[in-house]
Design goal:
mainly alpha
């Protein structure tokens, strides 16, 4: 496991993928448990907010790689 996730960047990408999976699973559970709560406007607001969060997360990873001299 450590050989695969050795560099910090791979670990951060794995955490990002895990976060996306948890978000999608959470939306699916929310849609099943509270079907009336998940309308188009709520889903759009949650998704846009999460995508902005993930954009900032992945941009910060790229900035860290540039600071470390790894290149992008």
């Amino acid at each position: 496991m450590q050989a695969f996730l050795g560099p910090d960047t791979r670990f951060y990408f794995a955490i990002g993928a895990f976060t996306i999976a948890v978000f999608v699973l959470g939306l699916a559970v929310l849609a099943v448990v509270y079907p009336g709560f998940v309308d188009v406007s709520t889903m759009a607001a949650l998704t846009v907010g999460f995508l902005v969060y993930m954009l900032v997360y992945f941009v910060s990873i790229s900035v860290q790689r540039l600071e470390d001299g790894d290149g992008v």
